[in-house]
Amino acid sequence: MPRRRPATTVEGATRAPDRRRLAAGKAESAECRRCPLWRHATQTVFGAGPADASIVLVGEQPGDQEDLAGEPFVGPAGQLLRKAMREARLDEGIAYRTNAVKHFKWEARGKRRIHERPTTSEVLACQIWLELELAAIAPRLVVALGATAVRSLLGPSARVLRDRGKILSSPTGVDVLVTVHPSSILRAPDEIARREAYDAFVADLRAARRRLASRIARVRPSGVSPKTTPAETG
Ligand code: URA
Q: 224: CA distance to ligand 1 center in Å?
């Protein structure tokens, strides 16, 4: 039996996640032709994780490995993300992973496929899928990883470096914690810079865990004993 979590709506009421809508969105997005990126990608990479996730992590777009595997965050950035989540004691089992853009955009350099940043119109064309995922899951918190996710979720005036660590309300009423993309940590120029960037990223994920814990405490009816995951305690 799948776990059933009443998700929190903007109004603070609760409702069950819409598993059917999420599954239908995944099937429909496999045929997406809303922008030209599908032409050079192997497949649409829809989000992955439990439909009743408390938290949704949003990256930019699938990378080379994700494009081949058909699953988000399975490559080096995903490994770093998972390590940081463990260190922040944010339980992977309550997290759904996805991207602002669902097709891999790349250019050939020799035999390698090198990541290219999606344009604003490509991000806008793909917003329909991200919005569907968030509406179906109704998570308690969304974590925007890097500039593309931040702009897709919060609009063009949001800024990663100015707003990182803050929880902002999206135009659709979802709480969004702003942080950097894990790839930016991998690209840091030296070991010291990498360590600092990583520690700051873990601190942001800890803030996400604390926010989840406080929201869960707020929505739990009185007299109901707390059912916590490791990520929601401490
Ligand atoms: N980078 C992303 O933004 N998403 C992935 O799925 C992988 C790498």
A: 38
Q: Which helix H or strand E contains 178, and what residues bound it?
A: strand 175-179
Distance 162 CA to ligand 1 centre (A): 22
Burial class (CB in 10 A: 0-12, 13-18, 19+), 169: exposed
Ligand 1, CB cutoff 6 Å, lining residues: 59-63, 66, 72-73, 75, 77-78, 99, 183
- Tell me whether residue 138 is in a domain: yes
Residue 5 covered by a domain = no
Q: Is 138 left (phi over 0), alpha (psi -120 to 50) or beta?
A: left
Please give the average per-residue pLDDT across 217-229, as a whole number: 49
* pTM for the full predicted model: 0.89
State the residue range of the domain holding 164: 16-221
Residue 12, strand partner residues: none
Q: Confirm whether 139 is domain-assigned.
A: yes
Q: Which residues contact 40 (CB under 8 A, 6 or more apart)?
A: 104, 105, 106
